[in-house]
């Protein structure tokens, strides 16, 4: 991905990190999004998170300083990152973390996904957002390919010239995860959105190893379906796909307790 702007310094609160996928450059990449100090959405891509130096490996709701330039990607929130410039500054207060996060995130809350889609279709903006579904009906789990394709493995095994850190090869998620929900919009007929959230993908990897093939789904649904519906004031972070600008997916979960 090239860029069409001058380098500039920004401070960003990281709110979204997706499960990595094979990339044309840098072996793998994770779509990362945040909110700037000025209260604006920003998409930082591509970031090969696992190849960052340990002190640069930010967590969600960390403030980071980063040098960016407007990407050639036509989505207005998309910026190319100078990876060497990433510096973790601080984390949102632990003791009052949800209230502190709400104060930053919720001013950007949209009325609905349907509203976001209309705005993007009419104005080409926004291509990132957060909203509260009227109802989440269920988490859909569908089988996917068990392993990467030959081409994807070749991408993942590309040497990284800028890092000598050895990595275990990225694990393929053998399932597709999506949410079926309705919007708080009079015209909404329902949506089913794939979800690429990092925590969701990584939890599957850990819990299948811990609980085995017969029991992981029960634990997984308890956390990412029942708790989200019954115990959490859930909102969804969403974004459009660069190659398919009319398609929205869920890129992150915002789940403060009720």
What does this structure look like?
By secondary structure, the chain is of the alpha+beta class. It folds into two domains: 8-91, Nucleic acid-binding proteins (OB fold (Dihydrolipoamide Acetyltransferase, E2P)), CATH 2.40.50; 109-254, no CATH class. 22% of the residues lie in helices and 35% in strands. It is built from five helices and 13 strands. It has helices at residues 97-105, 113-123, 150-156, 198-211, 216-230; strands at residues 8-17, 21-22, 28-36, 41-47, 62-70, 78-91, 109-110, 128-131, 135-143, 175-182, 191-194, 235-240, 248-254. Strands 1-3-4-6-5 form a five-stranded mixed β-barrel. Strands 7-8-12-13 form a four-stranded mixed β-sheet. Strands 9-10-11 form a three-stranded antiparallel β-sheet, covered by helices on one side. α4 packs antiparallel against α5 (216-230). It is globular, with a radius of gyration of 18 Å.
